[in-house]
Amino acid sequence: MSRVLVGIQRRKVPMSGRDPDEEHRAATPLELFFDLTFVVAVAFAAQGLHHSLLEGDIGEGVFDYAIVFFAIWIAWLNFTWFASAYDVDDVQYRITTMVQIAGALILAAGIPRGMADDDFAIGVTGFIVMRLAMVTQWLRVAYSDPPRRKMAVRFAIGITVAQAFWITRLIAGTNLWWLFVGGGIVELLVPVWAESVARSPWNFHHIVERYGLFNIIMLGESVLAATIAFQVALDAGSGDVALLTLAISGVLVVFSMWWLYFDHPKHRFIDRTRTAFAWGYGHLFIFGAAAAVGVGIEAAIDYKTDHSSLTQVQTGLVVAIPVAIYVLGVWWLHGLRHMRGYLNIAFPVAAGIVVAAGLTPAALHLTALTLVALVVLVVAEMPNLERDAASHGA
Fold it and tell me: Which among 191, 271, 315, 331 could bridge 303 via Cys, Cβ 3.0 to 4.6 Å?
């Protein structure tokens, strides 16, 4: 036992902060392991939304999905930015991160019950475990990084206060909406308040990579839905043409969403704290929509196979609205300040066409065609975008 304790002490590294300009910074195996637990959580959230849509409970399903996804996203976001700044990869850091992973698993385990029976006790408990573990990380920063001590203490205090809302919700035993809203607002304001006194040393390239990887995880829900569409179509004997075209359209939508997100000049669009918050928080809509698109594709399959309580228009909008939100999110965060001419107009126009397509019987098909056309425009304009990026030193 003494040798184990000595070994742990030798692996203890002061959390003085990583170099924000460190080159070739990439996601670590522990970060990827952390993300793996969120694959499960997002899958459960999507399943809950899908089940609600099957029963025709659109409003309740979307509301519960929004609450659950916000909890998933805020926990992932806080760890990601912290790890970018203070990942020292010693024993203490690994153990604390694994406690957060355990909290994420508890959160995921509570999602089905929460979305089915409005009993979020298990999910909230897992969230609290994750967040209190993050408090210990920030207290360690406060001890090891004197220049940013005030910032770290603010993070620890703010996160603790936010947990008071969630703990109150557990004690109350009811889904008081103001507790959810209050806790959510505090969670969002904590980083703004803390980093107003000092900026944590996060790495631009690392953050961009981490967000890209998480977006791929979200798109994975749509890949699964498209796969199910192919399976259902092929199981129909010689193959149902209508279902096959749905499956193909779903694949084209997912491919186009990936292309639109990743095929843009690598501007330093989060080089200042203010733009970093807008960019980091704005991804809530991109990520939430990306996961919901998969649910929309499944809803289209359910309607085509007479397993849905939704009408044709409702089904079309369930597909179209998250796609439109995704397109507008990508345009706002990646293109609004850096695109020019017709391309800067094409994104919102495409989002409008997608919503209009949702009112038609061929919602998914027209959505796919619209996104493919948008990708073609982006590819045609890319040389000009890259030239502009080079002239600005991106």
Answer: 315
- Residue 63 is assigned to a structural domain of this protein: yes
Q: Range of 238's domain?
A: 219-263+270-391
Q: How large a percentage of the chain has pLDDT more than 70?
A: 87
pTM (2 decimals)?
0.90
Question: What's the full length of the chain, in residues?
Answer: 394
Query: At CA 65, angle to CA 64 and CA 68, rounded to 5?
Result: 85
DSSP annotation string for 231-293: HHHHTSSS--HHHHHHHHHHHHHHHHHHHHHHSS----TT-SHHHHHHHHHHHHHHHHHHHHH
What is the tally of structural domains in the chain?
2
> Which CA distances in Å does 283 have to 262, 280, 319, 332, 387?
14, 6, 19, 10, 26
Q: Quick check: is 181 in a domain?
A: yes
d(CA 369, CA 344): 19
Q: Check residue 390 and give its pLDDT.
A: 53
Q: Which of 5-9, 250-254, 334-338, 389-393 has the lowest mean pLDDT?
A: 5-9
Shared domain for 111 and 176, answered yes or no, is yes
The pLDDT tens digits for 45-60 are 999 999 998 888 888 8
Q: Judge whether 212 lies within some domain.
A: no
**Mean pLDDT score, 158-182:** 79
Q: What is the CA radius of gyration of the chain?
A: 22
Cβ-based neighbours of 5, under 8 Å, separated by 6 or more:
none
Q: Rounded distance, CA 41 to CA 37, Å?
A: 7
236 and 373: one domain?
Answer: yes
More confident residue, 18 or 96: 96
List CB contacts of 11: < 8 A, sequence separation 6 or more. Answer: 90, 91, 92
